Structures are given as structure tokens and as C-alpha cells.
Amino acid sequence: MPRTVQLALGSLVVGCLVLTTKFAAWWVTGSVALYSDALESIINVAAAAAAVVALRVSALPPDANHPYGHYKAEYFSAVIEGVLVLVAAMSILREAYQGFLNPSPVDAPLLGMAINGVATVMNAAWSSVLLRFGRRWRSPALTADGKHLLTDVFTSGGVLVGFALVPLTGWAWLDPALAAVVALNILWTGWGLVRESVGGLMDAAPAKEVLDRIRAVISENAEGAIEAHDLRVRHAGRVTFIEFHLVVPREMPVGEAHDVCDRVEHALREETGDALITIHLEPPHKAKQSGVLVLP
């Protein structure tokens, strides 16, 4: 079983534990704010399940129908998670509105805060694991799940602080107000997840610093060539696709030109991790003097 799938299964288990704990906190208090926090945990569980499926699909080898592999399946998981987050936010806003119309005092606030605090600590620990390995393994699904959990940690912390003020101040309306704030924060997070994932599905160019580093690697390792141009880079899940034209001297033997390409490919994989690299060799008259100049 791929390591990314194992981590996603761990997210599913942790999500179920957190969901149970947060609903217990809502059950003993009747708080709309804690209910909104628990409702988001349902999304965490659904998103973790979607991530497991997407990661298993993305690990499949290329086939006749998908010669470039199945790596983009992870983006679908992140898009689904973003959409689910938006749905949860709308449900929370509805509950908050009902709470404003009919405010009521909460029960057993200290017990509810303690139970919810345990769930928040679990989410904080697991989000750090997902973010660390998601970035290391270049997994959009794991990274999106980690970011979502981290947002959940911050919102849960805010809910707990505000929830503590309800019995101290006697302001019953503060409970649904906190739920509304949580919903707005979730909306912002969901929009960010959808936007980032759609960018991956649409083959958006990577960040400028990534492109600059790839240009530098080509320039530093293509000794013997003249220049590289028409560089195109895109990410598909954990894999980076790199394509460019490499201009070599007319008198360079094919075997020597092939060695140059091998050297550049090795250096690029050292820099980017998993990569599919396509290099098109060209004669000197194809030089554009506007691409990547090879360092002597």
C-alpha cells in the first residue's frame, strides 16, 4: 500500500475520533457554536475518505487510456473537499441564524470545553503530520487535508475562547455569533482549496521561484550545449512535468548530446523529486537567444 494512502487512512481514523468527541461536546452543552465545530468534522471525515480513493487512483501506473498516469486524481479530492467545506459553512450559517432568533443558555460549559479541547489537540497534532509529509511527498490531497485541519484547529480555538465568555457575560447571542464567525472562516478556506485545486487541474504554471530554480539547474548542468528555450513546467499531483528544447553544436555527436540530456535530467530529478522530462534536441540555427543560456 502506498505511503500516501496509509497516511490518508490515518486521517480517516483520526477524523472519526475527532467527530465523535466534538459531537459529545455539543451533546452535553447544546451550544450552536460547538455544533458548528462538530459539523465541520463531518466534512473532515468525508474529505479523508475522498482522499483515500483519490490517492489509490493516483498511484496506479500509466495505461493505454491514461499514458501520462493518474496523478491528477488527487486534485479531484481537494476540489471535493473544498466544495464540502462550502456546504458545511452554509449549514452552519443557517444554524447560527436560528440561534440568533431563539438564543438559549448553554449547559455544562466547562465539561463541553474540556471535551472539545481534546478534539482540538488531536486535530492540531495530525494536521502537522499531514502538512509535513504532504509537502515532502508533493501530495495535493494530503496538503489540502492538512490545511483544512489546521484551519479547524484555529476555529476551534476561537470557539473555545468565545464559548468561555458566554457563561461569564450571560450573553446568549454570543454563541450563535461565534458559529457565524466559524462559518465565514470556513467559507474562506473552502474557496482557497477549490481555487488551488482547479489551478492544478488546469495545468497552471508553478510559482516563479520554482521556474527560476529549474532554469538554473538546466543552465548549470547542460555544459556542452548552447541554450535551452521553450521551457514549460506543470505539476500533476506529486509529479512535475518538464519540457524544453536544448540547442547543441552541430558537430556534437548524438551520443554526447544524449549524455548531456541524461546529466540535465538527473539534476532536475534531484531538484524536483518525481519528474517526467522531455528534451527536444535542436541544431544551432534554432537558437532564440531568449531562453536559458548554458553556463560554460
TrEMBL record:
Broad class of where this protein is predominantly found: membrane
Cation efflux protein transmembrane domain sequence ranges: 12-202
Keywords: Membrane, Transmembrane, Transmembrane helix, Transport
Pfam families: Cation_efflux (PF01545), ZT_dimer (PF16916)
Entries under InterPro entries matching the protein: Cation_efflux, Cation_efflux_CTD, Cation_efflux_CTD_sf, Cation_efflux_TM, Cation_efflux_TMD_sf, CDF_Transporter
Residue ranges crossing the lipid bilayer per the database entry: 7-29, 41-61, 73-93, 113-133, 153-171, 177-194
Subcellular location field: Membrane
Similarity-based family: Belongs to the cation diffusion facilitator (CDF) transporter (TC 2.A.4) family.
Protein name: Cation transporter
